[in-house]
Please model this.
Amino acid sequence: MERQAEQGPLLDCGRHQLDLSAPRVMGILNVTPDSFSDGGNFLRPETALQRARKMVDEGADIIDVGGESTRPGAIPVPLAEELRRIMPVLEVLCPQLPVPVSVDTSKPEVMRAAAQVGAGLLNDINGLRADGALEAAAETGLPVCLMHMLGRPQTMQDDPRYGNVTQEILEFLMQRVAACEAAGIGRQRLLLDPGFGFGKRSVHNYQLLRELDQFVATGLPVLVGMSRKGMVGQATNKPAAERLHGSVAAAVMAATFGARIIRVHDVAATREAMDFVAAVLSGGVAD
Ligand code: PT1
Model:
């Protein structure tokens, strides 16, 4: 099986170029009230910068900033609220970090605002399906991760059904690629993400991971997020706080099958695992 090309493309993230010839680690920075303890208040920009810097020191190649929780059952956040949460953080992070900052949003207004302050990548769990999102993303000139989601976060786990989950998601993503190209977003700007846990049962998630090479075979870089998700807990029988080892196993499998960006909470452990995968797939480091 052809698992990893010798030379991956450089992804143009504005002031940063991301080399995708080896698996890269995307560190998660949530700017949501439920993701830190001083509830009600949002992450202060200085605290966010500290956390982001720590992840970069641990080996993160990208920092993903999100102001809206999208886990199963999550309630949508109004535009003004999302902007209030993430813009002060992006304004501090984008000019100061040595790596590109991606913004986890589905809203066209947030995409535009984020691009203006120097974000390097748009990460849309909704695959640019919101009204105006294709046009907004096109205007930014930034790369876009197109993710598959069945339904919406609040209800997506109610009763997800598929015929062949891999085929259906591939078809969906290729339709979104065509929509992007028609809107002026060239393929060199696109990444694909099957959307683990977004309207999928564990059997669907495991089949998608087993068949990840079919996404890789499109020729577009594949991004995956499985860190601490239910699909890891189902197999390891661990609560979210104890899913590190299972999550690293998921990352190793995805990278072995050709995924190029792994979105994770635990950067240091994943970085070390990816360094090993990269050494093996590239033919090894010098003795
Ligand atoms: C992801 C992703 C994301 N996941 C991209 N962005 C989340 N591109 C947020 C569970 O089953 O996979 N890819 N942004 C987090 N969402 C979830 C979904 C968290 C499911 C947990 C679960 O536990």
